[in-house]
Amino acid sequence: MAARSSTRLTLRVPQPLTLGIVAATILALASFSGGASRNRGGVLEALNIGFLSYGHGRNIGMVLYWIGLFGLVAAWVLAGRHVIAPQLKEPTPEGGLREIQRMLLCWIAPLLAAAPLASRDVYSYLMQGAMVRDGFDPYTEGAAVNPGPFLLEVSHDWRNTTTPYGPLHLWMGNAVTHLVGDHVAAGIIVYKAISVLGFAAIAWSIPRLARSIGGDPSLALWLGVANPVMILHLIGGMHNESVMVGLVSVGLLAAVHHRFHASLLLVGVAVSLKATAVIAAPFIVWLMVHRWAPDGTRMVKRVGIFLMAGVLAVAEVAVAVAVITWASGSSWGWLSQISGNSKVINPLAGPTLLADVLVPLIQFFSPDTTYNDVLGVLRSAGMVLMLLGLVLVWWWGRTGVRRAIAGTAAAYQVAFVFNSVTLPWYYASVLTLMGTFRPPLSIIKLTTGAALFIGVAFAGDGNHQLYNWFWVIGMIVVAWTATQWIFAGVPSSATASTKKPTPARAE
Q1: SS3 for 213?
Q2: Which residues are CB-neighbours of 506 under 8 A, at least 6 positions away?
Q3: Cα angle value 343/249/169 (rounded, 5°)
Q4: Taking each helix axis from N to C terminus, what angle separates 55-79 and 97-108, rounded to the nearest 10 degrees?
Q5: pLDDT tens series, the chain, 507 aa
Q6: Contacts with 147 (C-beta within 8 Å, 6 or more apart), sequence order
């Protein structure tokens, strides 16, 4: 009697490199119809296929956006499973680094040709640059004072809003619009190049920072740079966080190698772009103290070094900001705008999340209470808690190099939790550092899950899904499941360390 034959259906898991390239290519193609596409003109109209930017054509583009985004997320998850998890189980110096570098390079390459994704902010950057070019002050006037091609692309929410960014941001915008005139597409190309340069600075410095303090450079690159939040919002969205975080990352690397003047000046330049960069400066003070007054130094000398380092940090950051303000011909009006714009409402900011939970309960007992009343109180309380949290985290980071870098990441996280306004790309400041300082496995998992959740929170046109509770619950489940799968079999005692920390003294 013949043996019964059987067929087995096997599913072949794609390679993360290939999957990421395909997904990024789909995202790039979808960006022109399902992304933050032009209101007037653009590539599709130039090719006489403008019908793809509205109606059913746009719906197809938005579907392709989600396919591409989830494909990119899946590629990142697979890279974590096949490259990072084995490295955590059996750490080797430089293990997996070249693989992650190759993947990152290939994943971002298709997006170099993409239109803006998940945000219309780049159009505002161009508009603000054109305002300066044409003699208007973006710190006191909204974009609507200067009609033209750029204004047509600015989101209606921001047409009468001043800018919270610093003089370097306006100086860059002024230079870009002088270069491209009123040509929107050319302006986007220039800002894409600027964003890529900032991203390259991050990708170059973060593995080196990890290596210098005994961390794992491959984990640092995968977790902090190659994740979907960074790729989507810094390369796809072209946010100025790319340059700001790049400057801070290089500055922290310089500080770890005891080049403190260069470090503080780089942070000062970053502050002149966006004020949140200043959060790194107090931790550089601890690095100076740790270098010049190590453990065992007499208390009097240690206090003197601390005071000198503090004065030096304030002076050099202030000088950098002042020089750029003077050279750019800008004003100090941005200091009154740095709290951000209260129009943005989403639960990534702690006060907003708490208001979303509390307001229905309060209104049950007090129907006349409005959402804005409660949110205003919570935002004020959040500012106080932020300041307290920043001080506590700063004090916690005083005991060593790794602790100072970890404290910097924690300080940014405190700022974004209690801030009145928080958006996904803000987390670039946190994510870049999370893999550098030998974090425990629980922190690696938490960061991975957060990056997965935040990475899929925004649609291609910039609208978020954070009030779609079916989506939120579903993505929390997906993020948790994917994180558990990535690190399955990794012992809880594993830390992201290598055997060769150089050259900075750790703890």
Answers
A1: coil
A2: 213, 214, 400, 401, 402
A3: 45
A4: 170
A5: 444 444 554 567 789 999 999 999 999 999 999 999 898 888 888 888 888 788 888 999 999 999 999 999 999 999 999 999 999 999 988 889 999 999 999 999 999 999 999 999 999 999 999 999 999 999 999 999 999 999 999 988 889 889 989 999 999 999 999 999 999 999 999 999 999 999 999 999 999 999 999 999 999 999 999 999 999 999 999 999 999 999 999 999 999 999 999 999 999 999 999 999 999 999 999 999 999 999 888 999 999 999 999 999 999 999 999 999 999 998 888 787 666 567 788 999 999 999 999 999 999 898 899 999 999 999 999 999 999 999 999 999 999 999 999 999 999 999 999 999 999 999 999 999 999 999 999 999 999 999 999 999 999 999 999 999 999 999 999 999 999 999 999 998 777 665 444 444 433
A6: none
Would residue 252 be called left, alpha or beta, if left means φ above 0 and alpha means ψ between -120 and 50 degrees?
A: alpha
Q: Is the dihedral of CA 88, 93, 95, 101 positive or negative?
A: positive
β-bridge partners, 464? 458
Q: What is d(CA 109, CA 429) in angstroms, rounded to the nearest whole number?
A: 23
Residue owning tokens 């005692």: 493
The answer to whether the CB of 131 falls within 8 A of the CB of 146 is yes
Beta bridge partners of 458: 464
Instruction: Quote the CA–CA distance of 344 and 226 in Å, as a whole number.
Output: 27
H-only helix segments in 336-427: 350-365, 371-396, 401-418
How far, in Å, CA of 270 to CA of 243, rounded? 8
Nearest in space to 456 (alpha carbons), one of 66, 121, 79, 103: 66
pTM beyond 0.90: yes
- Please report, for residues 173, 215, 400, 498, the alpha-carbon distance to residue 211 in angstroms, rounded to integers and kept in the order given: 35, 5, 16, 8
